[in-house]
Amino acid sequence: MIQIEKLSKVYRSRGREVTAVDGVDLTVREGEIFGVLGRSGAGKSTLLRCVNLLERPDSGRIAVDGRDLLSLDGRELRRARQGIGMIHQHFGLLSSRTVAGNVAFPLEVMGVPRSERAARVAELLALVGLDEHAQAHPAQLSGGQKQRVGIARALAGRPKVLLSDEATSALDPETTASILELLRDLNRRLGLTVLLITHEMEVVKRICDSAAIMRRGRVAESGPLRELLLRPGSELARDLLPLPDTPPHPGAGTTVVDVTFEGDSADRPFVSSLARTYSIDVNILGGAVERIGGTRIGRLRIELPGDPDVNAAQLAHLREAGLTVEVRTPADTPAAEEASLS
Ligand SMILES: Nc1ncnc2c1ncn2[C@@H]1O[C@H](COP(=O)(O)OP(=O)(O)OP(=O)(O)O)[C@@H](O)[C@H]1O
């Protein structure tokens, strides 16, 4: 649904150049929720704003629903933008207008006749659960309600794509959860493709089907969430399923292994199977389990007696059980892990 190829954007001001987006390739499939994660300054906002050409990239290609946006003329681009809604961290509502007036605004701009507008506004407000607040003004609403107005307004042109710029960053955890639930619900009911940017792991964990990690203008890794988490060396797994940093340097005579597994750990008694098969003591150093997209994915850090070279059979045993197995080396220091989202 969204294809981004070799996209670059450089800001130039007062003789200084900042490469905000640096050769990004990204594919967002139709009907999925795709999260771009990264720290402040990573280039997320710039990337998102390039997708509806609020920001014009220096080079690269952006296709939305099969249309190459950079090749469109003014009128065609305006039409294409109707198919791309956007919501913002600070909602961007017009304080002088009522809730209904805010949602009607894009319909007026699109030239929807007055006779049709009221019904469409009512439909949109019902969709986001705000039908009873149509005549309220933004100042009378909570943050969550304001974002619901923002969502209703973004959906006015029946877009296929919704861009979300840190839509829950200004909200408390409970309200965040309800807005994320609404986005998931709209995604399913309307077949809406959602591209969101966030610095909150919680957002990715709760609703994203796929994700990318951005760092210094580049995509460090991207793909379906489940695949990413099971991929050896995954930064996302490191952040989403953190393990304690004990021990940063595996001591001589032991092997420290991070094992990533899917499904209930009870269904996969790999620790006891390993201990039984090789008559060894397996020490569990830490673990994390999360429910992601309906499946449980977990990571466990375990310690086996003996150096890695004497544990070849034991490691093969784990791999044969379909587990992702990563042997910790002295290079895996906390400092190396700290770099993950920077
Ligand atoms: N209009 C601008 N002019 C000059 N530099 C800019 C402009 N907008 C962004 N930048 C710079 O581009 C880089 C990427 O910024 P961007 O806002 O895209 O990152 P971000 O990941 O969205 O971070 P944040 O969450 O803080 O907005 C930063 O170094 C930023 O200072």
TrEMBL record:
One term of GO molecular function: ATP binding
All residue ranges annotated as the ABC transporter domain in the record: 2-241
Keyword terms, alphabetized: Amino-acid transport, ATP-binding, Cell membrane, Membrane, Nucleotide-binding, Translocase, Transport
CDD domains in UniProt: ABC_MetN_methionine_transporter
Gene3D superfamilies: 3.30.70.260, P-loop containing nucleotide triphosphate hydrolases
Presence of the UniProt keyword Ion transport in the record: no
UniProt name for this protein: Methionine ABC transporter ATP-binding protein
Gene source species: Actinomadura rugatobispora
Taxonomic lineage: Bacteria, Bacillati, Actinomycetota, Actinomycetes, Streptosporangiales
